[in-house]
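Final report, closing paragraph on structural work. Over the funding period we assembled a curated collection of sequence-structure pairs, and we close with a single example.
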Amino acid sequence: MATVGSITAAKPTSNIRNYILVTAAYWADTLTDGAVRMLVLLYFNQRGYSAIQVAMLFLFYEVFGIVTNLVGGWLAARLGLKTTLFSGLGMQVIALSMLALADPAWLTVPYVMVAQALSGIAKDLTKMSSKSAIKFVVAEDAQSTLFKWVSILTGSKNALKGVGFFVGGLLLYLVGFQHSLFVLAAVVLTALIATAILMKGGLGTSNKKAKFSHMFSNNRAVNILAAARVFLFASRDVWFVVGLPVFLYTMLGWTFWQVGGFLAVWIIGYGVVQACAPGILRRRYEARGGTPDGVTATWLAFLLAVFPAGIALALQADMEPTLVVVIGLIAFGMVFALNSAVHSYLILAYTDSDKVAMNVGFYYMANACGRLAGTVLSGVLYEYFKLMGCLWACVAFTLAAGLLSRLLPTTAHGRASLAALGGDE
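Its predicted structure, as stored:
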């Protein structure tokens, strides 16, 4: 079949055009999402909020991420990805405006939690639309291309989220909390208007008969992957969301600028590694059939557990904390990025095109469950056990992800492997 670059020429040009627009809108929303997270975290920590209170600010963000991915996948299947995309961008503008226009006295924990809930819904609707769209522009038999495109999309998203961390810290320093939010709202509104004007037709096909009960996958491989995803993302957020930034600021004496800049660089590097995952892992997975599989996900998860354990043991041995945390976090980020890229490929490899929105929604619901657990535990564990408690929880979660990954198909992707598991829908 003739191809143009990495995209199959037989795919409709309108789908390719719309996918590019969806991706650009997703980038704008991702940049904003990272900036808002850093703004909220640093601003309220500066106002004297405890680690638990800061974690609670993101509670609804994560809770509604679970609901959004579950319901959003069903809505996308029935109404089309275009509808969910525009809904996500519109909600993000509303969420940012709620914080930007609020009197400072209104910026209490409940009010910010509601605004963050809308922001979480917006982010996940946009993400689900973008991740699902790629299934429609890559040929079914071009699995190496699918892995590459998923890795590039996911990696670029995370790199932009890192830029967002940097932008959030910079805006807070330059223009303050509320003026920063006006700037970010303008960015998302511009993306919404541009996408609405330029997008022609729809993206993929809608299925008016799609039932909500179909959101709960009966594909065994998808269910196992979703469970592993819960623990993988809990392992990251249990120390990264609250524990690490507060540790850098309060224990190591870093400034807001340094905290935001370092986390931004880490996320950007994480995104770059994720985008390069196919090349980095090629020798490993080509020996097993040409694409990543359950074995790839398993050894990456077990390898990941080494780094938080190493950081915890080094800190207990009174080694230089700045050096230990920085080097350990870099190593952790590299392996985590590879593991996450493999997961993002596998969810598309395991699902059929007619169920992609619902299965991707279910998968990202699991992703949100992991983030929720990690976010809440990050605040609670840091409050009572400091960074050490967060790190050992990270070790436990990565080991759980590895054990679950052992149950994934150990052959190359495809209907044959799913059928063997009784999971081909």
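Confidence is low (pLDDT under 50) at residues 1-11, 412-425. The CA atoms of residues 36 and 168 lie 6 Å apart. We thank the funder for supporting this effort.
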